[in-house]
User: Fold these one by one.
Assistant:
Number 1:
Amino acid sequence: MAKDKNIDVKSNKKDKVVLETIKLTKIFGGLTAVNKIDLKVNKGQISSLIGPNGAGKTTVFNVVTGIYKADGGKVLFNGEDLAGKKPHQIIKKGIARTFQNIRLFSNMTCLENVMAGQHCRTNKGTWSAVLQTSGQKREELEIRKHAENRLKQVGLWKFRDELSKNIAYGNQRMLEIGRALASNPDLLILDEPSSGLNDKESEDLIVFLKSLLKEDLTILLIEHDMNVVMGISHWVTVMDEGKKIAEGLPEDVYSNPQVIEAYLGKEDEEEEY
Amino acid sequence: MKLNNSTNNKKNIFTYWIIILFIIIFLIFPFVINAYWVDVFFFFGIYALLGLSLNVVLGEVGLFDLGHMGFMAIGAYTTAILNVNFGIPIIILIPISAIAAGAFAYLVCSPIIHLRGDYLCIVTIGMGEIIRLTLNNNPFGVTGGPNGVFGIDFPSLGNFFVIDNSAKFYYYIWIIVGLTIIGLVNLQHSRIGRAWNCIREDEVAAESTGIDVRFYKLLAFVLGAALAGVAGNVYATKLMMVSPESFNFMESCMLFCIVLIGGMGSIPGVLIGAAAISLFPEFFRTFAQYRMLIFGVAMVVMMVFRPGGIWPRKRGALQLKSILTKAGTENG
């Protein structure tokens, strides 16, 4: 049943592009980490960005989410140019992200982590907090309710009072996704969500990500694990050495000789050794 | 309290009784002890207020601020100069001192707020010293140079209620400390407090979670400075004079110790730290020349055995219950 629904979603909103990068370039010193990348993410789909280590995938994410400034090209989100926006403004526009090496607020509880995720959706200021106005109390209650929902959604409600550094690695990943979801994003960017997870956890993650599509959410992920990529992606883009070398449906990309070359090396190269 | 009313009622009631007991002890304290000790406890209050103000910057946000006495100096001198030269009543000068110190913090910290850790530390040391040296050099003849400014009035409400003795000052400072604690506890449990702690834990993640890191760091500095300004106001009216050497680098270090001893970001911890800094030397006055040695050893021992401070902030001890009452949502 879930599968049918996915296909529905896919066919309805296929045309609408949520995120688009046009000739995106990022240069570190003499190294062109990202070289004129054109990337399109369609609404209601799971798109993947894959490529060997050092291909510049994470750099693309960092430019999109505002951590780095682009040296050339544009990032369009729902048609709006994100140039010069800071990360906290970009998440307010509706792009939430997770990190490759989990970055939780380690000495805060799991619930507080998720509550912090709603910061950009709430607006009560210092004075209402100091004086505990009724508006402040109402907002705090809303934050609590929403955080509880999200924490249950990622299945970590039982760990609500644990410090986030004390829970298992797989749970930390889910918590980070929960924190990103707490901001009610339109686009969720996941940087290697399955790294460090065992097979069972990876499978659960795939099911979970698919279930998110029902929430009118679009997902862009970086992934190494081919099983994950092939299992859930609607669209795959392959990068190598900062350039886009292929894109298309997962099956097509999987058999593309250029992609195989990027991952495994050229045939004649191997003969030399 | 709405959030956790059904939970741990017993423990809450116990905590309330402890707090009420402390308040009663504080209320009757000046009647059972001599004026000297009342004064000691007044300075305990001043240190507590300063500790709380530094705790906002250092404890909640993790910004190393070793020039905090500079902000207090701004508050104290604002009070002194405006009161002595223009006769403005002290009670009006409390908010003015706070605003002056806060505005100064905003101006000075805006360009340096992006610095991290030890770099910020060095710059704030410089800032604190520049303030002290400027006051010492008597700019425009208003700060009185090394002698300072004399003849500050007592705080008063018109002519009928004047705070003019040790006991009254004792109540005065502790009422201010009490109000400050209430305000800061409220802040700790709001999105502002969470945002501060997020920045302390991980700046990049905080920014990506939607927290305007620069704004909240500046907010912490301004708020901390404003509270230090209030402390400066009370200090100036108690001593009836201000002079630059009250605000030297050692005092800033002492404030730093208060927050570290008590536990970063912990309000009860700050009170304990302030007690350690202000009361400890009095209890050990008999040892005279050895007391700084004992103090140093105590610090070292504490840092080895309780690196998080004497009373670190406990998180998640609330055992929060679900507030969604809908059936079937308890799947966690």
Number 2:
Amino acid sequence: MLIFKLMYLIRGYVVVRLKDANFEKIMNLLRKKGIVMWDVEKKDNEIKFKISYDDYRKYQDIIKETRMETIKKKGIALNLRKIKVRKGFVGGLFILSICLYLLSSLVWNVEVIGTNNTTAKKIKTVLEENEIKVPVSQGSLETKSIETMLYKNFDNFKFVEVYVEGSNLIIFVKEKTIEPSEIKNNDPTSIISKKNAIISKVIAKSGQPVVKEGDVVYEGQTLIMGIIKNKNSEEFMMVPSDGIIYAKTYYNFEMKEEKIRDVNVSTDNRKVSFFLKINGKNVKIIGDKAPYENYNYKENIIDVPVLSSLTNIKIVKGVYYEETVKKIEIDENTAQNKMKVAMYDDLIKKCNKDSKILKSSINFTEDEQYYYLRAQIEVMEDIGESVKIYPMTDVKDEINEENQGG
Amino acid sequence: MGKFNNFRSYLADNLEIPNDAFSDNFDLRMHGNKKVIIENHTGITVYENDEIGIKTNDQYILIKGSKFKIEEINSFKVIVKGEIKEIIFSKE
């Protein structure tokens, strides 16, 4: 029965009503004509039943004669017949589907990820030179051959991946980076000073210390030399230096803090605006742009279910919170603490982790507008830094080589 | 007509042929007391919510019950749904 009903749902059926006292007779008449009736229901003095749409059209005369009322027509075939009548609509639908297919099967944009703008432009130029110009059909793109082409054209590429995502051709690039030269343990090194300081302790594990306690050293000055004299012979030899040089360093700080400061305080007012984000540009739909003089702006991007995945269009909800500027007087203690914290933060950046403050003198002054901090901090820290040393090439050999070359 | 039909029925029974295929006898099947399928009928005589009369070649079938609904009717069979309480067969 279910299949029978499903079949007529596809082919189409008509619900009719019969208001006749002698409906059994009419039903028998229809039955004799070969008309199939189903879902026959009786209510008071009328009966309602369904007949197929084909029978309805075939025996329309009998239906009129028996004064049957058509209540509704249903079925997929009937709906298709209606669509057939709307030729323009069907044509439009057909054109739309073709356009959608064409637009979605083309690549409209080339996106380069992982490199700067200049290289991205160069990549696009190389693609254009090799006749890959957007819009291009996705079927004609061979990602592997593009990868090979890019490897050939750019020597500094470590990794290239090309793939199509939606209507974008994504080129993911990783460039080779020049690795900083590392000092190997066996390379001969000297230790030099990083800062201007007064030496307080020299612990030389290897190498020849050239400074002693109490010496004033300047930035770049050698502290432990990587050249030592061989005990057995008179020759000099180069060794990797190792050691710790503790020295006193001095840091001077000058800071100021405003006595009265402007602070933005938010009011309860807010306004909401909606924008359409197309390729990174905002187009206003509802609301004002910058409705307040002072405001705090927050935005929320809303993806439109189908549209955002097909295109790059998004809806942006922007909320402007009104703010007013208030002048706040800062008390002396707060200002001093703030300046101190900022000073120590600054100091930590300049010193090593193992550094130790020996002495600090901090002076606070003030005038009509500002609080001032002047401080000198004496710090004990390791000031040594390893640098690689190279053997001197013989000057005579170089001259000979030049003469031979000439 | 009646005698000839009886003979055909007798013959079908002995030859083990389906009776309704060989004779004009109706075929009645019931699914519990919810559904009656009658094949080989010749029309409906009464249709009420609590009573349905169906005519066959030599019998009248009167089905009594409640909430009756004709699920399907065509020239060959009729399917009646509802709560069946009684089926009465009568001649003419």
